[in-house]
Each structure stands twice: as C-alpha cells, then as structure tokens.
Automatic annotation (TrEMBL):
Gene3D superfamilies: OmpA-like domain (3.30.1330.60)
Region (Disordered): 50-75
Keyword Ubl conjugation: no
Compartments where found: Cell outer membrane
Keyword DNA-binding: no
Biased composition (Low complexity): 63-74
Organism: Bradyrhizobium japonicum
Signal peptide positions (record): 1-30
UniProt keywords, alphabetically: Cell outer membrane, Membrane, Signal
Transmembrane feature ranges: none
This protein's name: Outer membrane protein OmpA-like peptidoglycan-associated protein
Domain OmpA-like: 100-218
C-alpha cells in the first residue's frame, strides 16, 4: 500500500508540473516585444485603402449614391504641398494638412527612431519595409500620402520641430530609394512634440513615431 501511495504521489506530481508548464509557456511569447509593433503589408493596405463605394440605390425617386468628392479647398491644399520640401511648410499649412488628414484613411505604424536621432530603429525596419511594399501595391500605388514625423517631449519646440522633419524625411528617402516611390507622392510634414500619441507619458518611445495618411485616390495623383 505504501509503495502504491508513493507511485500515485509521483504521478500526481508529474501531472501538476505538466499543467503548470502548459499555463506558463504561452505567457513568455505574449510578452515578446520583438514582433508586437511590426505590421504587415496587408494590414497597411487595408488601413490606407479608400473606403468601398456605396452600392447604387435603384428606385423611381432616389438617385444613385456616390462618394462625396473632395472639396475644392482640400484639392488645392494637396496640390500646393505636393513636391514641397518639409521645411518649406508653414505652421498654418501643417495644421491645414492635419485637419484634412484626420478624416482620411490612415495608420500609425509606430515607426520609432533612435533616441535624439532621425535614424530608423532596427526593430522598426520591418514596418518601414512593409510600408514600402504596401505603397507600391496595385491598391495604393500612385496615391498621395502624408508622412508625418513626431517626437517625444524632450527638448525645446524648435529643436523637436527640426527633428520631426528630419524623421519624416528619413522615411521618405528610404521609400524613394528602396521602393522607387515618386517623391511627389510623399508629402512630408513635422509636428515636433505638439501631437503626442501618449500625453500621459510625454517621454515615452511611442511618441517618437511616423504616421502615414492616404490623402487622395490615385485617379488624381501622379502615376
């Protein structure tokens, strides 16, 4: 009986250890930050693609529905900033771009940079490469995109404004050089520390990022 009891205890111990391992092993992967911030090409395409057109409504008294066309002021703004250098944009133009962009298809890729630098961080390079593939896909190629640079709250406004512009330029240069995207299809703008993603943690890495916005469909952008 004593031997049987010992054998039963050993079996229960093995079962307990196995159950503990099955519960804790997935948690190790859940906390892995190496892949958590990277996005795929498909995710970017879906986020930046124009919304699907509404189906036509048939009826005697109801006209077919259509997507609203961009306003004349919006079109004029986009055309006026295409091909401009980042530093040439005035504060008024930057805010006008932000106002128009808020209602456009967009994605925050959380592309981060080395501290106090415009160098793309190694862990974000995969996201930038996915962005390049997405912007050259048939669904998005030829559209005009805003590439907006942001910083954390460290340093003065002037310094951060310059740094955010250099970060936006860094992404644009990579996309043009590596993926052959037309420079005029990428409008770069810097916002410094004025639009923190996480105001509660102004020094957090998440604030050092680049946002991408699809500003107009490819029927009106350069080919």
């Amino acid at each position: 009986m004593r031997l049987a009891a010992k054998g039963l205890t050993a079996i229960l111990s093995i079962i307990t250890v196995g159950a503990a391992l099955s519960l804790t092993t997935p948690l190790a992967f859940a906390g892995d930050d190496n892949n958590s911030k990277n996005v795929t090409e498909d995710e970017i395409v879906r986020a930046l693609a124009p919304p699907p057109k509404k189906p036509l409504t048939r009826g005697l008294s109801i006209a077919p529905q259509a997507e609203p066309a961009p306003s004349a002021a919006e079109t004029k703004l986009i055309q006026s900033v295409r091909g401009r250098s980042t530093r040439s944009l005035s504060s008024t133009e930057r805010e006008e771009i932000a106002s128009v962009a808020k209602d456009k298809p967009n994605i925050d890729l959380e592309i981060t940079f080395d501290y106090n630098s415009a160098n793309i961080s190694a862990k974000s390079l995969a996201s930038v490469q996915a962005l390049g593939r997405a912007l050259t896909s048939p669904d998005l190629k030829g559209s005009t995109f805003v590439v907006a640079g942001h910083t954390d709250a460290a340093g003065g406004e002037g310094y951060n404004q310059d740094l955010s512009e250099r970060r936006a330029d860094s992404i644009k240069r990579y996309l043009v050089d590596k993926y052959g995207i037309a420079a005029t299809d990428l409008v770069t703008v810097g916002y410094g520390k004025s639009k923190l993603k996480d105001p509660a943690q102004p020094m957090a890495e998440v604030n050092r990022r680049v946002q991408v916005v699809n500003m107009e469909n490819k029927t009106t952008a350069s080919k």
